């Protein structure tokens, strides 16, 4: 096996390992920058590389990322799921409720409970979200915007 072949295998392995780790512990891939209170990507590759990959993915899926406090892997996951749902039904039958339900259930299963999703052509919002748990994007061809965010779940115990 030549050098390029080994390098491709190592790259593929490290990317797969990074994705598995992000699914198991998404908070590890996102940390808060106390100076600006903005989320900073934290991964094995540089934040610049993650942003370039994410930009390429959003262009290929005809999506526009508007605001985020979420790791690049989680953003990619959300855009891929939304695009697959939008492409699976005829454009005139695309239902915002269906897209919201699928995204919420997908993120609850992958990253733990308490995800919320709002999908529509026109809506306002003001939400409080968990660190590294907020994404606002639109699917350009369908004119739908998606707000996906996570909140904290606290167990209430009766005295």
Describe the structure.
By secondary structure, this protein is of the alpha+beta class. The chain has one domain: Protein Inhibitor Of Neuronal Nitric Oxide Synthase. Helices cover 43% and strands 21% of the residues. The protein is built from 4 helices and 6 strands, in the order αββαβααβββ. It has helices at residues 3-24, 47-60, 72-88, 96-111, and strands at 30-33, 38-41, 63-69, 115-120, 134-139, 144-150. It has a 4-stranded antiparallel sheet with strand order 3-5-6-4. Helix 2 (47-60) runs parallel beside helix 3 and helix 3 packs antiparallel against helix 4 (96-111). The longest helix is centred in the first third of the chain and has 22 residues, at 3-24. The radius of gyration is 17 Å and the shape is globular. Belongs to the dynein light chain family. InterPro entries: DLC_sf, Dynein_light_chain_typ-1/2. It is found in: Cytoplasm, Cytoskeleton; Nucleus. GO terms for molecular function: dynein intermediate chain binding. Keywords: Cytoplasm, Cytoskeleton, Dynein, Microtubule, Motor protein, mRNA transport, Nucleus, Protein transport, Transport.
CATH topology: Protein Inhibitor Of Neuronal Nitric Oxide Synthase
What overall form do the CA principal axes indicate?
Answer: globular
**Over all CA atoms, what is the radius of gyration?**
17 Å
Number of domains: 1
Major pleated sheet: 4 strands, antiparallel
User: Given this structure, which CATH class is correct?
Assistant: Alpha Beta
Please identify which CATH superfamily we are dealing with: Protein Inhibitor Of Neuronal Nitric Oxide Synthase
Helix/strand order, N-terminal first: HEEHEHHEEE
């Amino acid at each position: 096996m030549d050098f390029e072949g080994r390098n491709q295998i190592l790259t593929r392995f490290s990317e797969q390992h990074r994705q598995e780790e992000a699914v198991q512990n998404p908070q590890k891939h996102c940390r808060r920058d106390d100076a600006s209170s903005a989320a900073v990507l934290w991964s094995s590759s540089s934040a610049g590389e993650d942003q370039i990959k994410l930009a390429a993915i959003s262009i290929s899926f005809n999506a526009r990322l508007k605001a985020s406090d979420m790791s690049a892997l989680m953003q990619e996951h959300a855009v891929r799921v939304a695009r697959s749902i939008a492409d699976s039904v005829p454009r005139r039958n695309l239902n915002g409720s269906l897209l919201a339900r699928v995204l919420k259930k997908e993120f609850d299963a992958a990253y733990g409970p308490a995800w919320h999703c709002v999908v529509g052509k026109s809506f306002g919002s003001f939400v409080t979200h968990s660190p590294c748990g907020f994404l606002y994007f639109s699917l350009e061809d369908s004119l739908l915007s998606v707000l996906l965010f996570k909140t904290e779940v606290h167990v209430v115990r009766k005295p």
